[in-house]
Amino acid sequence: MALVRGVIKENEATINMPIGRSSKDRIKMAVTKTGKEAITHVKVLKRFEGYTLVQVIIETGRTHQIRVHLAEIGYPIVGDFVYSNGKNPFGVEGQMLHAKKLEFKHPKTGQNVNFEAPLPRYFMDILEQLERKI
Fold first, then answer.
1. Sign, CA torsion 108/111/112/118
2. What is the per-residue pLDDT for 58?
3. Which residues are 122's β-sheet partners?
4. How far apart (Å, rounded) are the C-alpha atoms in residues 127 and 123?
5. Are 124 and 53 in contact (CB under 8 A)?
6. Which CATH number applies to 2-133: 3.40.50.150, 3.10.290.10, 3.40.50.970, 3.30.2350.10?
7. CB of 28 within 8 A of CB of 19?
8. What is the pLDDT of residue 129?
């Protein structure tokens, strides 16, 4: 789950843009013509004034994929100083990006493995602040 700046109009979207090392800043990743395939599915969970809460499912696992893709389409993650312009109206330490559920096949047993974690308190507090503004 992620809280992004801006209000996403579509209810669902698939971002299919290759990601590779940035030619402008070698520390960052970027959408590049020569990058590796990267596919991210985004579903709007809730729209707020100036922000959108989204569910994100990735098909590929590129470095910083979610952050790069969302910033590339104009909806950077709140608190992401690397892939946005650094605005942080909530004073968040870190990003408003949370792996609520992880699921994968175990490499040795081949069995499906699932992990779930509730949203952290600071994330819920910010969502509650935004709720009050609606």
1. negative
2. 96
3. none
4. 6
5. no
6. 3.30.2350.10
7. no
8. 95
Using CA atoms, how far apart are residues 113 and 91, in angstroms rounded to an integer? 34
pLDDT at site 84: 87
Profile the chain (134 residues) by mean pLDDT over runs of 10 residues.
Answer: 97 98 93 97 97 97 97 96 85 92 94 96 96 84
User: Is the distance from CB of 17 to CB of 98 less than 8 angstroms?
Assistant: no
Structure tokens at 29: 């990743």
Using DSSP's 3-state secondary structure scheme, residue 8 falls into coil
Question: What is the C-alpha R_g of the chain?
Answer: 16
Q: Name the H helices within the chain.
A: 65-72, 121-133
Phi, psi dihedrals of residue 129, rounded to the nearest 5°: -60, -45
The pLDDT assigned to 86 comes to: 74
pTM over 0.90: yes
